TrEMBL record:
Its main location: membrane. It is found in: Endomembrane system; Nucleus, Nuclear pore complex. InterPro entries: Sec13/Seh1_fam, WD40/YVTN_repeat-like_dom_sf, WD40_repeat_dom_sf, WD40_rpt. SUPFAM superfamilies: WD40 repeat-like. This is Anaphase-promoting complex subunit 4 WD40 domain-containing protein.
């Protein structure tokens, strides 16, 4: 059977598009651009084409990223920009499509001291919560005071991921991703420049450093935490300027227990438990330098061990984006080769490229 070719469509943006986001159902698409505009498109089920929902000037500088909230909170978008602001938008179904008024600005948050690079809604079971990071090297987490009223947000965590912001003349990048598991302590991974940090909530409801990702050899462009359906361990993927897609395996021990559960037995566990010492030392050093989270070891944290599961250079150039599907079984990556590659684990838990998608017209 012949595969239907990818159909391009004109967005109408006047400058570079920085980000594209689907809603939960894949029936709505948002784009943002250096032209300072956000555009939202609806999928026409009859023609399978994207129809403009609305377009509006959203920020006073390049709009870097736009994300949809979970549908249980309504039709909500969040956007960030080099103008240092976060803006929250809600769709007003009483306004006409294409009027420029269909998406109402509900809140503006302007705590950042530099351009913002990434924003992400937390998994819906954690409530209406967003995390952001920008060029000032500070991770900020905000909660909607009342999920039914998205006009008011409160800053609940503020962490200096970097001891000092990068020099403005140097290229930099920042990204974050939440742990989507309902059955694990609240965690997120933050990538700043060429370093990756995993933060975990402690008993005081504050994020503290749990461990770090192994070293990358360039700026980390993208990070994605996989849903862990059917797995006792977690997976994190990164895309890096050094041309590698990396997939990390995270195993977790509760409290001070060094013996895994029955379904976690394997021959590498002795090494896993032994390896947590260096991670804890790194965590303590990081915590001692962070005035927001206190100092010293935190016994309320689970011990997390990280190992590199595999790395792939198939893109033969810089990797700009990685993203897991909703079940955490397939990883997609995009790079300088103008191709999307899909990765899936074999029965022996080795990730292989299962498909290559090219948008180039033949």
């Amino acid at each position: 059977m012949m595969k239907e070719p990818i159909k391009p469509f004109a967005t109408g943006h006047e400058e570079l598009i920085h980000n594209v986001a689907y809603d939960f159902y894949g029936k709505q698409l948002a784009t943002c651009s250096s032209d300072q505009h956000i555009k939202v498109f609806d999928l026409d089920p009859l023609t399978s084409t994207w129809v403009l929902n609305d377009s509006w000037k959203a920020h006073d500088s390049s709009v870097v990223k736009v994300v949809f909230a979970s549908p249980e909170f309504g039709h909500i978008l969040a956007s960030i920009s080099f103008d240092r602001t976060i803006k929250i938008w809600e769709e007003d179904f009483d306004e006409q499509n294409g009027s420029g008024r269909r998406w109402k600005k509900m809140a503006t948050i302007s705590d950042s001291y530099g351009p913002l690079y990434d924003i992400s809604f937390a998994p819906s079971h954690l409530g209406l919560r967003i995390g952001t990071i920008g060029n000032d090297g500070i991770l900020r987490v905000y909660d909607a005071i009342e999920p039914s009223d998205i006009r008011h947000w409160t800053l609940t965590n503020e962490i200096n991921v970097l001891s000092s912001p990068p020099a403005p003349q140097l290229q930099s990048d920042f990204s974050l991703s939440w742990c989507p598991s309902r059955f694990s302590s609240e965690k997120l991974v933050v990538c700043a420049l060429d370093q990756g940090f995993i933060y975990q909530k402690n008993k005081n409801d504050k994020f503290v450093l749990a461990t770090q990702l192994p070293e990358h050899n360039g700026l980390i462009r993208s990070v994605s935490w996989a849903p862990s359906m059917g797995r006792y361990y977690q997976l994190i993927a990164t895309g890096c300027k050094d041309g590698l897609v990396r997939i990390f395996k995270l195993t977790e021990t509760i409290g001070n227990k060094s013996v895994p559960n029955d379904d976690q037995m394997d021959t590498s566990r002795d090494e896993d438990i032994e390896g947590t010492g260096s991670a804890l030392n790194a965590r303590n050093d990081h915590n001692n330098n962070n005035n927001n989270i206190g100092s010293g070891a935190d016994n309320s944290l689970n011990h997390i061990h990280v190992e590199l599961l595999s790395s792939h250079d198939d893109h033969k150039g810089e990797v700009w984006k990685v993203k897991w599907n909703l079940t955490g079984s397939i990883l997609s990556s995009a790079g300088d080769d103008a191709k999307i590659r899909l990765w899936k684990a074999t029965y022996s838990n080795k990730f292989q490229c299962m498909s290559v998608i090219s948008a180039q017209q033949k």
